[in-house]
Design a protein that fits this description.
It is built from 11 helices and 11 strands. It is α+β, with helices and mostly antiparallel strands. It is found in: Membrane.
Length: 384
Amino acid sequence: MFGRPNVFVTTPDASKRVIMGDEAFKPGWPTSTMELMGKNSFIGISYEEHKRLRRLTVAPVNGYEALSLYMTFIGENVAVALEEWSSAGEPLELLTQLHKLTFRIIIFIFLSSKALKARKKVVDGLHSILYQRRNRVKHEDDSGKQQLGKNKKVDMMEELMGVEDENGRKFRDEEIINILLMYLNAGHESSAHVTMWATVLLHQHPDCLCKAREESEEVVRRRPAHQKDLCKLQALEIRQIDYLSKVIDETLRFITFSLVVFIFKEAKTDVDTCGYTIPKGWRALVWFWGVRLDPEVYPNPRAFYPSRWDNLKPKAGTFPPFGAGSHMCPGNDFAKIEIAAFLHYILVGYELELVNPECPIQYLPHPRPKDNCLARIKKISQHG
């Protein structure tokens, strides 16, 4: 399988050994995956290089200033989309519409505006844009205008162009492109699926829906008088939606549409993994699907129960929706904010009505209703 011998690793302790054992394992993704993602992508680079990229991309992607800026655009687009969907009066494929919405958001955050398709076209387009941006910045610098890195950037690409490490080294074009491609997938495909499932699961569990709605409405009530009619979720308010954060975590566990469902690692030498030796050169495929249903890890695992996260701190290898160890996704905060923003907006002003509540689930390539969640979005109240 995958061109060489593989060992499937499914238990939490063994998974932790593989994921955290950078001294004994290195990235071991199949050749086809590396060709698709790029040889310098986050999944294939060394532990040291991944650590460097994570450190340098924290501020442009997950920093408070960046997230505050993103929140404004995310909120505006979510509000407009929900208004359009509810006004249509006809059933719509929620998953399809969420794909369009998250794609529009992530592309704007990357480039201010651009529609890109297929990896080769994406790479060619990004190379062209990077070339134009660098020439423009050089011209502005030579003419005494704004200098990159010293004034406000217009999007994530320009943020990444200006980042430099402690040695003054900046990102190469290939590095910037691979970072953007990773976020394109995580911020578009994955976010759309998780958002759809969180919305559906809340409406399938009225007690959870009521609790989440009360929390979001309380956030609106606590705003100053001149802002109470606005449905806009502020960056500071993200910390106030504690239960909604647990809803998102429980959705990630319950559905297991993780941003990383499995991880390939190659043994550098013979490695003992909880009593089983993985020979040198073999791949360890860490598979996270089964852990979510392990009653020793999650009591009553088949129940959707967000409150299980009240005092739960998952052990390593048991909850990896954003990866784990040295290859933790650096955009985890952005992804959760994007999902939380949509849920907040729909909770305070809309409700979901599934057209086919018993619709069968299609599991490949990712779990989803076969009808792409055909539903009606109905307005129940309005804040502004």
